[in-house]
Specification:
Mean pLDDT of chain B: 93
Low-confidence stretches of chain B: 219-224
Order of helices and strands of chain A: EEHEEHEEHEEHHEHEEHH
Radius of gyration of chain B: 20 Å
Helix content of chain A: 25-40%
Strand content of chain A: 15-25%
Number of domains of chain B: 2
Strand order of the largest sheet of chain B: 1-2
CATH topology of the largest domain in chain A: Alpha-Beta Plaits
Shape of chain B: elongated
CATH architecture of the largest domain in chain B: Up-down Bundle
Low-confidence stretches of chain A: none
CATH class of the largest domain in chain B: Mainly Alpha
Distance between the termini of chain A: 88 Å
Radius of gyration of chain A: 26 Å
Strand order of the largest sheet of chain A: 9-2-11-10
Number of strands of chain A: 11
Order of helices and strands of chain B: EHHHHHHHHEHH
Helix content of chain B: 55-70%
CATH superfamily of the largest domain in chain B: Transmembrane di-heme cytochromes, Chain C
Structural class of chain A: alpha+beta
Largest interface: A-B, 55 and 54 residues
CATH architecture of the largest domain in chain A: 2-Layer Sandwich
Oligomer: heterodimer
Number of helices of chain B: 10
Largest sheet of chain B: 2 strands, antiparallel
Number of domains of chain A: 2
Strand content of chain B: under 5%
Amino acid sequence: MSQASTEIVRISGHAGTVPGAGLNREYEVCKLVDTTTCIGCKACEVACLEWNGYTFTETTFDNTYQTMPETAWNYWNLIKFNEHENEDGNLMLLMRKDQCMHCADPGCLAACPADAAIVQYANGIVDFQEANCIGCGYCMTGCPFNIPKFSPKARKVFKCTLCNDRVSQGLEPACIKTCPTGCLHFGTKAEMKELAGMRAQQLRENSGYRNAGVYDPSGVGGTHVIYVLHDATNPEAYGGLPKNPQVPLMVRLWKHPLKWIGNFGIIFGAVGVFIHYLRFGPKIVKEDEQHGGTQ
Amino acid sequence: MIRGKYLLPNGRVLRYSFHERMIHWTAAVSYLYLLLSGLAFWSPWLFWIAIVLGGGTVARELHPWFGVIFSVAVCLMYGMWSKQMKETPADKSWWASIGHYIRNEDDKMPPADRFNPGQKFLFWGFFVNGILLLVTGLILWLPQYIPWNLRILRLISIFLHPVSALFTIALFIIHVYMGTAMERGAFGSVIRGDVSRAWADHHHHSWFQQVLREEDSPAKSSGD
Protein backbone atom coordinates (compact mmCIF):
# COMPACT_ATOMS: atom_id res chain seq x y z
CA MET A 1 0.00 0.00 0.00
CA SER A 2 1.12 3.52 -0.67
CA GLN A 3 1.13 6.59 1.51
CA ALA A 4 -2.50 7.03 0.46
CA SER A 5 -3.33 4.54 3.18
CA THR A 6 -2.92 7.37 5.68
CA GLU A 7 -5.76 9.33 4.14
CA ILE A 8 -7.81 10.73 7.02
CA VAL A 9 -11.60 10.46 7.30
CA ARG A 10 -12.28 11.64 10.86
CA ILE A 11 -10.43 13.84 13.35
CA SER A 12 -11.25 14.16 17.04
CA GLY A 13 -12.17 17.54 18.53
CA HIS A 14 -11.88 19.14 15.13
CA ALA A 15 -13.75 22.22 13.95
CA GLY A 16 -14.57 22.39 10.26
CA THR A 17 -13.83 20.05 7.42
CA VAL A 18 -11.47 17.08 7.49
CA PRO A 19 -8.66 17.66 5.00
CA GLY A 20 -8.28 14.98 2.38
CA ALA A 21 -11.36 12.93 3.19
CA GLY A 22 -12.76 10.96 0.28
CA LEU A 23 -10.10 11.98 -2.23
CA ASN A 24 -8.69 8.56 -2.98
CA ARG A 25 -9.98 5.07 -3.39
CA GLU A 26 -8.99 3.20 -0.29
CA TYR A 27 -9.18 -0.35 0.93
CA GLU A 28 -10.26 -0.97 4.48
CA VAL A 29 -7.72 -3.14 6.22
CA CYS A 30 -8.63 -5.79 8.74
CA LYS A 31 -7.00 -8.10 11.22
CA LEU A 32 -8.61 -11.50 11.63
CA VAL A 33 -8.03 -13.36 14.90
CA ASP A 34 -9.10 -16.99 14.77
CA THR A 35 -9.40 -17.86 18.46
CA THR A 36 -9.91 -21.52 17.56
CA THR A 37 -6.34 -21.93 16.32
CA CYS A 38 -4.58 -19.74 18.89
CA ILE A 39 -2.18 -21.73 21.06
CA GLY A 40 -1.49 -18.92 23.53
CA CYS A 41 2.22 -18.72 22.74
CA LYS A 42 2.25 -14.94 23.23
CA ALA A 43 4.60 -14.40 20.30
CA CYS A 44 2.27 -11.56 19.22
CA GLU A 45 2.73 -9.90 22.63
CA VAL A 46 6.49 -10.01 22.21
CA ALA A 47 6.42 -8.85 18.59
CA CYS A 48 4.21 -5.91 19.58
CA LEU A 49 6.65 -4.82 22.30
CA GLU A 50 9.64 -5.22 20.00
CA TRP A 51 8.21 -3.33 17.07
CA ASN A 52 6.86 -0.49 19.19
CA GLY A 53 10.03 -0.26 21.26
CA TYR A 54 8.63 -0.92 24.72
CA THR A 55 10.58 -2.80 27.35
CA PHE A 56 9.18 -5.81 29.15
CA THR A 57 7.32 -4.74 32.24
CA GLU A 58 6.48 -6.59 35.41
CA THR A 59 3.82 -9.22 34.90
CA THR A 60 0.96 -9.98 37.25
CA PHE A 61 0.32 -13.57 38.26
CA ASP A 62 -3.34 -14.30 38.83
CA ASN A 63 -3.34 -18.10 38.74
CA THR A 64 -3.72 -18.11 34.98
CA TYR A 65 -1.32 -18.11 32.09
CA GLN A 66 -2.28 -14.51 31.28
CA THR A 67 0.55 -11.94 31.35
CA MET A 68 -1.44 -9.22 33.17
CA PRO A 69 -5.11 -8.50 33.94
CA GLU A 70 -5.61 -6.01 31.09
CA THR A 71 -3.65 -4.21 28.40
CA ALA A 72 -1.36 -1.42 29.60
CA TRP A 73 -0.22 1.88 28.08
CA ASN A 74 3.01 0.17 27.04
CA TYR A 75 1.52 -3.32 26.53
CA TRP A 76 -1.01 -3.07 23.72
CA ASN A 77 -1.41 -6.71 22.83
CA LEU A 78 -2.55 -9.19 25.48
CA ILE A 79 -3.86 -12.72 25.12
CA LYS A 80 -6.72 -13.26 27.54
CA PHE A 81 -6.92 -16.78 28.94
CA ASN A 82 -10.27 -18.00 30.22
CA GLU A 83 -11.30 -21.42 31.47
CA HIS A 84 -14.80 -22.07 30.23
CA GLU A 85 -17.15 -24.98 30.76
CA ASN A 86 -19.20 -25.51 27.63
CA GLU A 87 -22.72 -26.96 27.28
CA ASP A 88 -21.43 -30.54 27.24
CA GLY A 89 -19.62 -30.02 30.52
CA ASN A 90 -16.21 -30.03 28.83
CA LEU A 91 -13.59 -27.59 29.94
CA MET A 92 -12.20 -25.28 27.28
CA LEU A 93 -9.26 -22.91 27.54
CA LEU A 94 -10.34 -19.88 25.56
CA MET A 95 -7.55 -17.70 24.32
CA ARG A 96 -8.26 -14.36 22.74
CA LYS A 97 -5.73 -11.79 21.61
CA ASP A 98 -7.01 -8.51 23.04
CA GLN A 99 -6.07 -5.20 21.42
CA CYS A 100 -7.68 -2.12 19.92
CA MET A 101 -10.57 -3.13 17.68
CA HIS A 102 -10.26 -0.09 15.38
CA CYS A 103 -14.02 0.52 15.31
CA ALA A 104 -15.66 2.08 12.28
CA ASP A 105 -17.54 4.28 14.77
CA PRO A 106 -14.89 4.83 17.46
CA GLY A 107 -16.11 5.81 20.92
CA CYS A 108 -12.66 7.16 21.83
CA LEU A 109 -12.73 9.59 18.91
CA ALA A 110 -16.29 10.67 19.72
CA ALA A 111 -15.35 11.50 23.31
CA CYS A 112 -11.99 13.17 22.59
CA PRO A 113 -12.02 16.99 23.00
CA ALA A 114 -8.49 17.62 21.69
CA ASP A 115 -8.07 18.68 18.10
CA ALA A 116 -6.52 15.85 16.06
CA ALA A 117 -5.46 13.75 19.05
CA ILE A 118 -7.32 10.82 17.48
CA VAL A 119 -7.59 10.32 13.74
CA GLN A 120 -9.43 7.73 11.75
CA TYR A 121 -7.83 6.85 8.45
CA ALA A 122 -9.71 5.80 5.37
CA ASN A 123 -8.19 2.33 5.68
CA GLY A 124 -10.01 1.92 9.00
CA ILE A 125 -7.10 2.44 11.37
CA VAL A 126 -7.91 4.61 14.40
CA ASP A 127 -4.68 6.10 15.67
CA PHE A 128 -3.76 8.30 18.63
CA GLN A 129 -1.49 11.26 17.92
CA GLU A 130 0.22 11.69 21.28
CA ALA A 131 1.63 15.07 20.25
CA ASN A 132 -1.92 16.42 20.22
CA CYS A 133 -3.20 14.39 23.19
CA ILE A 134 -3.97 16.51 26.26
CA GLY A 135 -4.21 13.53 28.62
CA CYS A 136 -7.82 14.04 29.70
CA GLY A 137 -8.62 10.33 29.49
CA TYR A 138 -12.05 10.85 27.91
CA CYS A 139 -11.14 8.22 25.29
CA MET A 140 -10.79 5.71 28.13
CA THR A 141 -14.40 6.39 29.06
CA GLY A 142 -15.65 6.47 25.46
CA CYS A 143 -14.11 3.12 24.50
CA PRO A 144 -16.44 0.14 24.95
CA PHE A 145 -13.49 -2.30 24.94
CA ASN A 146 -11.29 -0.87 27.76
CA ILE A 147 -8.34 -0.30 25.43
CA PRO A 148 -6.84 3.22 25.79
CA LYS A 149 -4.52 3.42 28.80
CA PHE A 150 -3.08 6.43 30.59
CA SER A 151 0.67 6.69 31.01
CA PRO A 152 1.49 8.41 34.31
CA LYS A 153 4.96 9.18 32.94
CA ALA A 154 3.94 10.78 29.65
CA ARG A 155 0.57 11.96 31.03
CA LYS A 156 -0.96 10.96 27.73
CA VAL A 157 -2.97 8.00 26.53
CA PHE A 158 -1.66 5.16 24.38
CA LYS A 159 -3.05 2.16 22.55
CA CYS A 160 -2.49 -0.25 19.64
CA THR A 161 -1.90 1.57 16.34
CA LEU A 162 -2.66 -1.51 14.20
CA CYS A 163 0.98 -0.89 13.22
CA ASN A 164 -0.07 2.12 11.18
CA ASP A 165 3.62 2.83 10.56
CA ARG A 166 4.06 -0.64 9.03
CA VAL A 167 0.73 -0.76 7.21
CA SER A 168 1.31 2.60 5.52
CA GLN A 169 4.53 1.15 4.11
CA GLY A 170 2.81 -1.94 2.80
CA LEU A 171 3.78 -4.26 5.64
CA GLU A 172 1.49 -6.34 7.80
CA PRO A 173 1.23 -5.58 11.55
CA ALA A 174 3.98 -7.02 13.78
CA CYS A 175 1.63 -9.43 15.57
CA ILE A 176 0.46 -10.90 12.27
CA LYS A 177 4.03 -11.23 11.04
CA THR A 178 5.08 -13.30 14.01
CA CYS A 179 2.09 -15.61 14.59
CA PRO A 180 3.35 -19.20 14.22
CA THR A 181 -0.01 -20.99 13.87
CA GLY A 182 -1.58 -18.77 11.26
CA CYS A 183 -4.41 -17.86 13.59
CA LEU A 184 -3.77 -14.22 12.71
CA HIS A 185 -4.55 -12.93 9.23
CA PHE A 186 -4.32 -9.51 7.68
CA GLY A 187 -5.90 -8.15 4.51
CA THR A 188 -8.82 -6.10 3.30
CA LYS A 189 -11.97 -6.06 5.39
CA ALA A 190 -13.90 -7.84 2.64
CA GLU A 191 -11.31 -10.59 2.31
CA MET A 192 -11.03 -11.12 6.04
CA LYS A 193 -14.80 -11.26 6.47
CA GLU A 194 -14.99 -13.88 3.77
CA LEU A 195 -12.17 -15.92 5.28
CA ALA A 196 -13.69 -15.63 8.76
CA GLY A 197 -17.08 -16.68 7.44
CA MET A 198 -15.58 -19.76 5.77
CA ARG A 199 -13.72 -20.73 8.92
CA ALA A 200 -16.86 -20.32 11.05
CA GLN A 201 -18.83 -22.44 8.63
CA GLN A 202 -16.12 -25.10 8.76
CA LEU A 203 -16.27 -25.10 12.56
CA ARG A 204 -20.06 -25.39 12.53
CA GLU A 205 -20.19 -28.16 9.95
CA ASN A 206 -17.07 -30.22 10.64
CA SER A 207 -15.93 -29.55 14.19
CA GLY A 208 -19.17 -29.61 16.14
CA TYR A 209 -19.06 -25.96 17.21
CA ARG A 210 -22.70 -25.28 16.33
CA ASN A 211 -22.55 -21.68 17.51
CA ALA A 212 -19.26 -20.83 15.83
CA GLY A 213 -19.36 -17.40 14.23
CA VAL A 214 -17.66 -14.14 13.42
CA TYR A 215 -17.41 -11.24 15.85
CA ASP A 216 -17.72 -7.98 13.91
CA PRO A 217 -20.03 -5.95 16.17
CA SER A 218 -22.44 -3.67 14.31
CA GLY A 219 -23.05 -1.47 17.38
CA VAL A 220 -19.77 0.31 16.63
CA GLY A 221 -20.25 0.10 12.87
CA GLY A 222 -18.14 -3.03 12.60
CA THR A 223 -14.49 -3.30 13.60
CA HIS A 224 -11.19 -3.58 11.78
CA VAL A 225 -10.17 -6.43 14.05
CA ILE A 226 -12.58 -9.36 13.78
CA TYR A 227 -12.69 -12.65 15.64
CA VAL A 228 -13.73 -16.17 14.82
CA LEU A 229 -15.23 -17.58 18.03
CA HIS A 230 -16.21 -21.16 18.88
CA ASP A 231 -19.36 -19.73 20.39
CA ALA A 232 -20.30 -16.39 18.91
CA THR A 233 -23.41 -16.25 21.12
CA ASN A 234 -21.24 -15.86 24.22
CA PRO A 235 -18.38 -13.47 23.48
CA GLU A 236 -18.25 -12.47 27.17
CA ALA A 237 -16.62 -15.81 27.94
CA TYR A 238 -13.56 -14.70 25.98
CA GLY A 239 -12.22 -12.38 28.66
CA GLY A 240 -15.15 -9.99 28.69
CA LEU A 241 -15.61 -9.29 25.00
CA PRO A 242 -18.84 -7.20 25.02
CA LYS A 243 -21.82 -8.76 23.29
CA ASN A 244 -23.15 -5.53 21.84
CA PRO A 245 -20.49 -2.83 22.19
CA GLN A 246 -21.66 0.71 21.53
CA VAL A 247 -20.43 4.25 21.85
CA PRO A 248 -21.75 4.98 25.38
CA LEU A 249 -25.11 6.74 25.56
CA MET A 250 -23.68 9.36 27.94
CA VAL A 251 -21.03 10.31 25.38
CA ARG A 252 -23.68 10.54 22.67
CA LEU A 253 -26.00 12.64 24.85
CA TRP A 254 -23.15 14.94 25.77
CA LYS A 255 -21.91 15.36 22.21
CA HIS A 256 -25.27 15.79 20.53
CA PRO A 257 -28.38 17.04 22.34
CA LEU A 258 -26.51 18.61 25.25
CA LYS A 259 -24.05 20.43 23.03
CA TRP A 260 -26.82 22.01 21.01
CA ILE A 261 -28.97 22.85 24.02
CA GLY A 262 -25.92 24.29 25.78
CA ASN A 263 -24.73 26.36 22.84
CA PHE A 264 -28.22 27.70 22.32
CA GLY A 265 -28.54 28.48 26.03
CA ILE A 266 -25.23 30.34 26.23
CA ILE A 267 -25.95 32.44 23.12
CA PHE A 268 -29.56 33.04 24.22
CA GLY A 269 -28.33 34.17 27.65
CA ALA A 270 -25.69 36.54 26.29
CA VAL A 271 -28.02 38.03 23.68
CA GLY A 272 -30.86 38.12 26.21
CA VAL A 273 -29.07 40.28 28.74
CA PHE A 274 -27.91 42.61 25.96
CA ILE A 275 -31.47 43.04 24.73
CA HIS A 276 -32.60 43.61 28.29
CA TYR A 277 -30.08 46.43 28.58
CA LEU A 278 -31.28 47.99 25.34
CA ARG A 279 -34.91 47.75 26.40
CA PHE A 280 -34.80 48.62 30.10
CA GLY A 281 -31.34 50.04 30.73
CA PRO A 282 -29.54 50.16 34.06
CA LYS A 283 -30.94 50.62 37.53
CA ILE A 284 -29.54 53.97 38.62
CA VAL A 285 -30.09 55.10 42.18
CA LYS A 286 -30.40 58.87 42.52
CA GLU A 287 -28.32 60.38 45.29
CA ASP A 288 -31.07 62.40 46.97
CA GLU A 289 -30.68 64.80 49.87
CA GLN A 290 -32.36 62.47 52.23
CA HIS A 291 -29.40 60.13 52.12
CA GLY A 292 -26.70 62.66 51.37
CA GLY A 293 -26.43 64.11 54.86
CA THR A 294 -23.28 63.67 56.89
CA GLN A 295 -23.73 61.04 59.51
CA MET B 1 -23.36 43.71 64.04
CA ILE B 2 -20.70 45.79 65.62
CA ARG B 3 -21.47 49.43 66.14
CA GLY B 4 -19.87 51.70 63.60
CA LYS B 5 -18.84 48.84 61.40
CA TYR B 6 -21.20 49.49 58.52
CA LEU B 7 -21.71 53.23 58.46
CA LEU B 8 -18.40 54.54 57.25
CA PRO B 9 -16.92 57.94 58.18
CA ASN B 10 -17.14 59.03 54.54
CA GLY B 11 -20.91 58.79 54.68
CA ARG B 12 -21.13 55.53 52.74
CA VAL B 13 -22.25 52.10 53.82
CA LEU B 14 -19.96 49.07 53.97
CA ARG B 15 -21.61 46.40 51.83
CA TYR B 16 -18.86 43.76 51.62
CA SER B 17 -15.97 43.41 54.05
CA PHE B 18 -12.41 42.86 52.82
CA HIS B 19 -12.77 39.21 53.81
CA GLU B 20 -15.91 38.82 51.69
CA ARG B 21 -14.37 40.59 48.70
CA MET B 22 -11.25 38.42 48.83
CA ILE B 23 -13.28 35.23 48.81
CA HIS B 24 -15.58 36.57 46.09
CA TRP B 25 -12.64 37.36 43.82
CA THR B 26 -10.86 34.11 44.56
CA ALA B 27 -13.98 32.34 43.35
CA ALA B 28 -14.40 34.76 40.44
CA VAL B 29 -10.87 34.47 39.07
CA SER B 30 -10.76 30.69 39.45
CA TYR B 31 -14.23 30.40 37.89
CA LEU B 32 -13.14 32.51 34.94
CA TYR B 33 -10.22 30.19 34.27
CA LEU B 34 -12.47 27.14 34.68
CA LEU B 35 -15.01 28.66 32.31
CA LEU B 36 -12.49 29.48 29.59
CA SER B 37 -10.56 26.20 29.76
CA GLY B 38 -13.84 24.30 30.14
CA LEU B 39 -15.29 25.94 27.02
CA ALA B 40 -12.14 24.91 25.15
CA PHE B 41 -12.87 21.26 26.01
CA TRP B 42 -16.61 21.75 25.42
CA SER B 43 -16.48 22.45 21.70
CA PRO B 44 -13.88 22.00 18.96
CA TRP B 45 -14.85 25.45 17.75
CA LEU B 46 -13.59 26.89 21.03
CA PHE B 47 -10.46 24.73 21.36
CA TRP B 48 -8.40 27.79 20.37
CA ILE B 49 -8.99 29.08 23.91
CA ALA B 50 -6.84 26.20 25.17
CA ILE B 51 -4.07 27.29 22.80
CA VAL B 52 -4.29 30.83 24.19
CA LEU B 53 -4.10 29.40 27.73
CA GLY B 54 -0.79 27.71 26.98
CA GLY B 55 -1.93 24.63 25.09
CA GLY B 56 -4.45 21.86 25.67
CA THR B 57 -2.12 19.89 27.93
CA VAL B 58 -1.47 22.87 30.21
CA ALA B 59 -5.17 23.71 30.35
CA ARG B 60 -6.03 20.09 31.17
CA GLU B 61 -3.42 20.00 33.96
CA LEU B 62 -4.47 23.32 35.49
CA HIS B 63 -8.27 23.06 35.13
CA PRO B 64 -8.63 20.62 38.07
CA TRP B 65 -6.34 22.69 40.33
CA PHE B 66 -8.36 25.81 39.64
CA GLY B 67 -11.37 23.64 40.42
CA VAL B 68 -9.89 22.92 43.84
CA ILE B 69 -9.36 26.66 44.46
CA PHE B 70 -12.92 27.40 43.33
CA SER B 71 -14.33 24.65 45.55
CA VAL B 72 -12.48 26.01 48.58
CA ALA B 73 -13.80 29.51 47.81
CA VAL B 74 -17.36 28.19 47.49
CA CYS B 75 -17.01 26.39 50.84
CA LEU B 76 -15.79 29.61 52.46
CA MET B 77 -18.74 31.45 50.91
CA TYR B 78 -21.04 28.85 52.40
CA GLY B 79 -19.45 29.46 55.78
CA MET B 80 -19.87 33.22 55.67
CA TRP B 81 -23.15 33.61 53.77
CA SER B 82 -25.30 30.50 54.15
CA LYS B 83 -27.28 31.98 57.07
CA GLN B 84 -28.00 35.22 55.21
CA MET B 85 -28.94 33.23 52.12
CA LYS B 86 -31.70 31.26 53.88
CA GLU B 87 -35.04 31.57 52.22
CA THR B 88 -37.57 33.64 54.16
CA PRO B 89 -41.38 33.76 53.79
CA ALA B 90 -41.05 37.28 52.36
CA ASP B 91 -39.08 35.91 49.39
CA LYS B 92 -42.24 34.58 47.80
CA SER B 93 -43.72 38.02 47.28
CA TRP B 94 -40.39 39.17 45.83
CA TRP B 95 -40.46 36.39 43.25
CA ALA B 96 -44.10 37.16 42.54
CA SER B 97 -43.15 40.68 41.52
CA ILE B 98 -40.05 39.68 39.56
CA GLY B 99 -41.61 41.27 36.47
CA HIS B 100 -41.36 44.70 38.09
CA TYR B 101 -37.75 44.02 38.94
CA ILE B 102 -36.96 43.10 35.34
CA ARG B 103 -38.70 46.26 34.06
CA ASN B 104 -36.77 48.38 36.59
CA GLU B 105 -39.98 49.30 38.43
CA ASP B 106 -38.13 48.93 41.72
CA ASP B 107 -40.60 51.05 43.69
CA LYS B 108 -43.12 48.23 43.27
CA MET B 109 -40.75 45.64 44.76
CA PRO B 110 -41.03 44.37 48.33
CA PRO B 111 -38.01 45.45 50.40
CA ALA B 112 -34.98 43.17 50.21
CA ASP B 113 -32.75 42.03 53.01
CA ARG B 114 -28.95 41.97 52.76
CA PHE B 115 -29.36 39.57 49.85
CA ASN B 116 -32.44 39.64 47.68
CA PRO B 117 -34.04 36.32 46.66
CA GLY B 118 -32.34 36.51 43.24
CA GLN B 119 -28.96 36.68 44.91
CA LYS B 120 -29.95 33.78 47.13
CA PHE B 121 -30.85 31.79 44.05
CA LEU B 122 -27.45 32.58 42.54
CA PHE B 123 -25.69 31.51 45.72
CA TRP B 124 -27.50 28.18 46.06
CA GLY B 125 -27.24 27.55 42.33
CA PHE B 126 -23.48 27.93 42.48
CA PHE B 127 -23.27 25.96 45.70
CA VAL B 128 -25.24 22.92 44.49
CA ASN B 129 -23.66 22.90 41.05
CA GLY B 130 -20.27 23.53 42.63
CA ILE B 131 -20.62 20.31 44.63
CA LEU B 132 -21.72 18.39 41.53
CA LEU B 133 -18.83 19.83 39.54
CA LEU B 134 -16.38 18.94 42.29
CA VAL B 135 -17.54 15.32 42.61
CA THR B 136 -17.76 14.67 38.86
CA GLY B 137 -14.58 16.70 38.33
CA LEU B 138 -12.59 14.50 40.71
CA ILE B 139 -13.64 11.45 38.69
CA LEU B 140 -12.74 13.13 35.40
CA TRP B 141 -9.45 14.35 36.90
CA LEU B 142 -8.15 10.85 37.61
CA PRO B 143 -10.08 8.45 35.38
CA GLN B 144 -7.22 5.95 35.45
CA TYR B 145 -8.05 5.21 39.11
CA ILE B 146 -11.70 4.44 38.41
CA PRO B 147 -11.66 0.73 37.51
CA TRP B 148 -13.44 -0.62 34.45
CA ASN B 149 -16.29 -2.19 36.44
CA LEU B 150 -17.08 1.24 37.94
CA ARG B 151 -17.02 2.83 34.50
CA ILE B 152 -20.60 4.02 34.99
CA LEU B 153 -19.19 6.70 37.36
CA ARG B 154 -16.97 8.05 34.58
CA LEU B 155 -19.85 7.97 32.10
CA ILE B 156 -22.19 9.82 34.45
CA SER B 157 -19.47 12.38 35.15
CA ILE B 158 -18.71 12.99 31.50
CA PHE B 159 -22.35 14.03 31.05
CA LEU B 160 -23.14 15.63 34.41
CA HIS B 161 -20.02 17.82 34.55
CA PRO B 162 -20.97 19.90 31.48
CA VAL B 163 -24.66 19.93 32.54
CA SER B 164 -23.76 21.47 35.92
CA ALA B 165 -21.30 23.79 34.22
CA LEU B 166 -24.02 25.03 31.87
CA PHE B 167 -26.26 25.88 34.83
CA THR B 168 -23.44 27.89 36.38
CA ILE B 169 -22.85 29.64 33.03
CA ALA B 170 -26.50 30.71 32.97
CA LEU B 171 -26.14 32.09 36.51
CA PHE B 172 -22.78 33.63 35.65
CA ILE B 173 -24.12 35.54 32.62
CA ILE B 174 -26.95 37.05 34.67
CA HIS B 175 -24.66 37.72 37.64
CA VAL B 176 -22.01 39.52 35.59
CA TYR B 177 -24.59 41.50 33.64
CA MET B 178 -26.38 42.66 36.77
CA GLY B 179 -23.21 43.29 38.70
CA THR B 180 -21.57 45.40 36.03
CA ALA B 181 -24.05 46.90 33.57
CA MET B 182 -27.49 46.71 35.10
CA GLU B 183 -27.09 47.67 38.75
CA ARG B 184 -24.92 50.75 38.86
CA GLY B 185 -22.93 50.78 42.07
CA ALA B 186 -22.94 47.03 42.54
CA PHE B 187 -19.54 46.47 40.95
CA GLY B 188 -17.97 49.12 43.16
CA SER B 189 -19.45 47.41 46.19
CA VAL B 190 -17.52 44.24 45.52
CA ILE B 191 -14.32 46.14 44.60
CA ARG B 192 -14.11 48.96 47.17
CA GLY B 193 -16.68 47.38 49.45
CA ASP B 194 -18.98 50.34 49.99
CA VAL B 195 -22.20 51.73 48.52
CA SER B 196 -24.02 55.01 48.97
CA ARG B 197 -26.76 55.25 51.56
CA ALA B 198 -29.29 55.82 48.82
CA TRP B 199 -28.13 52.67 47.05
CA ALA B 200 -28.33 50.58 50.20
CA ASP B 201 -31.78 51.95 50.94
CA HIS B 202 -32.99 51.41 47.39
CA HIS B 203 -31.73 47.90 46.76
CA HIS B 204 -31.61 46.41 50.25
CA HIS B 205 -34.06 48.43 52.27
CA SER B 206 -34.59 45.93 55.09
CA TRP B 207 -30.87 45.42 55.50
CA PHE B 208 -30.18 49.17 55.52
CA GLN B 209 -32.87 49.74 58.12
CA GLN B 210 -31.31 47.08 60.28
CA VAL B 211 -27.89 48.68 59.89
CA LEU B 212 -29.32 52.01 60.97
CA ARG B 213 -31.12 50.47 63.94
CA GLU B 214 -28.10 48.55 65.12
CA GLU B 215 -25.68 51.38 64.66
CA ASP B 216 -28.05 53.42 66.80
CA SER B 217 -27.33 56.67 65.05
CA PRO B 218 -29.46 59.71 64.20
CA ALA B 219 -29.70 58.31 60.67
CA LYS B 220 -32.52 56.16 62.01
CA SER B 221 -35.07 58.76 61.02
CA SER B 222 -33.64 59.48 57.61
CA GLY B 223 -34.37 56.05 56.18
CA ASP B 224 -37.15 55.42 53.70
